[in-house]
Structure formats: structure tokens, C-alpha cells
Amino acid sequence: MKKKQVSNYSFKKALSKFATGITIITINSKNEFIGKTVNSFASLSLNPPLVLFSLDKKSSSLKKFLESKYIGINILSKKQKNISQYFSNKKETWGDTNFILSKENIPLIKNSVVNLSCKTFKKLPNGDHVIFICKVVSIKIDKSLKPLIYLNNKYY
Ligand SMILES: Cc1cc2nc3c(=O)[nH]c(=O)nc-3n(C[C@H](O)[C@H](O)[C@H](O)COP(=O)(O)O)c2cc1C
For 9-155, which CATH superfamily applies? Predict the structure, then answer.
């Protein structure tokens, strides 16, 4: 077998030097509310307004995300580190996370810097992840809050 030119270690190390925000992507799967901590979120297009994120093919909730017509994207504030930790846990629970239901019936996390309600547009399997491309259908911004930052495997 051909030797891998880039080790998992150096790939992860290099990409940990890229500062990101933290989002929780949320769905309502037949009245089961599911959230995942995701920092692969990015802006894709202005017209139409598209965003993307990628989800591990091994994720226990991948099937439910693939089936969802609507997805919430919640950009966490500096005060919501605990929420990032809840939703990156295998045995994810909502803990004390407060949310409201959007018009599309998806849970949107209260006190986030931004809540985006999105309609799934395309799902593209690539490598060990699936890229979800979503069209933003509504936006809520809290200008008084500062976003949580993730860099070098630490929160700031
Ligand atoms: C800071 C941070 C960012 C993450 N970003 C992603 C991501 O972009 N995509 C992803 O599939 N998982 C991501 N994860 C992992 C998931 O939050 C979660 O731990 C994993 O999906 C758990 O497995 P499960 O989906 O089988 O419950 C991230 C975790 C952390 C702590």
C-alpha cells in the first residue's frame, strides 16, 4: 500500500491553527431534538444565500440530518462554552440549553450570537464526511454578544 504523504497528526495540527467560531447544528427529527457541535461551518454564496458544514459519516445522527428538510445553525457566544461541550459529547443531552422552535419547527438555541434557519440544498459525500449545503431562510442576530472562538483545540 502507498504510504500516506500527510499524517493525521500533522493534518489536525495544521488545521487547529485556523481560528473558527463554534456552531450547534440542530434538527427536529420526528419530535426528537438533535444538536451537534460543528466548526466546519462556512459561508458559501451570497446570491442565493448559502452556507455549508460537514458532518462525519460515522456520526450516530448522520441519517437523521440527511433526512431533515430544515436545519438550524446557532453561532455560540463566549458564554456558551458549556453548550459546545454538551453537543460534542457522544451521549449528547440538551442539559440546561434553552431553545425556541422556529417557524419551520426546528430548535434554535437562545442567547446565541446568531440563529440561522436553513433549508437543506445539497448533500455531497466527500472523504469521510458529508458536506451539507443549506439555503438560509431566516436570520436572527444579537449584536450585544461576542462569539466563542476555537483555536489550537482551545476555546477563547
Ligand atoms: C470544537 C468541535 C468542533 C467539531 N466540529 C465537527 C464538525 O465540523 N463535523 C463533525 O462531524 N463533527 C464535529 N465535531 C464532533 C461532534 O461535535 C461530535 O463530537 C461527534 O459528532 C460525536 O459523535 P456522534 O455524532 O456519533 O454523537 C466537533 C467537535 C468539537 C469539540
Answer: Electron Transport, Fmn-binding Protein; Chain A (2.30.110.10)
